[in-house]
Structure formats: structure tokens, C-alpha cells
Amino acid sequence: MNKKNKKYPQGGHGGDLAKGKRKTQRPFDPKQALHVVLRSSKARGQHSMLRPQHCNLIRDLMGRIKLRWGISVYRYANVGNHLHLLIRAKNRSDWQGFIREFAGGIAMIVTGARKSHALSRSRSADVPDSAKRAFWDHVVFTRIVKFGRDFKNVADYVLKNLWEGAGIPVRQILAKGFKILEISEDGFIFIDQNAPPELKRAFTVG
């Protein structure tokens, strides 16, 4: 994880990493997966992407357009103010079509298509002027993920975010000395590494 910017993994493109830098072509490899992060500081309260009337529509939207553009979605996590996806696209054109339609569709779901539902102008110093009236804070973040250990690490990272979004304090659990033995969309199994051997037992959440 990049120590200077913990919100985004090292070696990525876009997001906060793009601030103050010259625009360059986004790295893309059709043979590898892609970690995608969409973040909105406006997606809080009534505009949270986790609100019941939003989250199901967003997942349904993703299901429809991934088929339209031939995108493989390996992992997906809605954390309220940001989304994580681990995907693979057959070519750059399919990727661009998918993310353009997905990001625009989410903004319409959350804010409404009519001008009367438009969000107020952002006052955050972290949001570039070009995005202050937009729903998304920055250009979408992506990082190429190689299949193998890197893929497993990112897949588990997205799953941790999924459970954090569901209200399970995964990071706090790990900080207290617990180790995750297995994690999936159905739940996870962890063990207390600090407990004496005779008291160690697995705990299941989900």
C-alpha cells in the first residue's frame, strides 16, 4: 500500500494520484485484471450509495452493463462513498464504454436526472475545480492486477471493503491481533493469534 496515499494502492492511475500531473494514457492490459475505484465525497447521507434505494439499483446497473460490454467482474464492494471493483475487459474500448456508462448511471441513480436534484457545489480543497459540480471527486482510479498472488491480495482487499461497508469493522478486528483464515462474499473466518494455544478457536462472521 502506498504510504503517501493509503486510499489507493501503489502503481495506479487516476484518483488522487492524478492531481497536479499531466494527463497520460491509462495503462491497460487485456490479459490482466483491473482494480477500479470510484470515489465521491458527496455520496454521504441521503446520497450514500449504500442507501437501500441506491445500492440495489447500482448492482443491477452493473449487472446489465457488464453483459453489454463483455466485462468480467470478479469482486465488487459498495462502501457508501466509494466503490471497489476487480474486473477484466477484453479491450480498451469495452473498458471505456463500461466505466463511462457505469459512472454516469450511478450519478443519475443517486442524484436524479433532473436539474432540481443537482448537488451543491463542493467546497472541498481536495476536489479539483473541474469536478466540483460533478458527482465523482476525481478521474476513476485503476491499477493493473496480475493474476496470481497480486490478484488474490486485491480480491481479499475488496472483500474486506465489502464487509466494512456492511458494518463489520474488519480493520479493527485485524488490529486487535486476529487473522483472517478465509474470506468470501458469504462471510469470513478469523482466529485470535494472541490467545494461548489451548484457547485458540476460529470465529465465523456471515
Task: Put the structure in a nutshell.
With 206 residues, the chain is an alpha+beta fold.
Description of the molecule:
- This protein has 206 residues and is an alpha+beta fold.
- The chain has four helices and seven strands, in the order βαββαβααβββ.
- The chain has a four-stranded antiparallel sheet. The protein has a three-stranded antiparallel sheet with strand order 5-6-7.
- The protein is globular.
Topology of helices and strands:
Elements lengths: L32 E7 L12 H18 L2 E7 L3 E7 L3 H20 L29 E5 L3 H17 L4 H6 L2 E7 L2 E6 L9 E4 L1
Antiparallel strand pairs: 1-3, 1-4, 2-3, 5-6, 6-7
Helix pairs in contact: 1-2
Stretches with pLDDT under 50, minimum 5 residues? 1-9, 114-118, 121-133
Class derived from helix and strand content: alpha+beta
Shape designation: globular
Proportion of beta-strand residues? 15-25%
Largest sheet strand order: 2-3-1-4
Number of strands: 7
| Percent in helix | 25-40%
**Order of helix and strand elements from N to C terminus:** EHEEHEHHEEE
Largest sheet: 4 strands, antiparallel
Rg from Cα: 18 Å
> How far apart, in Å, are the first and last alpha carbons?
27 Å
Number of distinct helices: 4
Average pLDDT level: 81
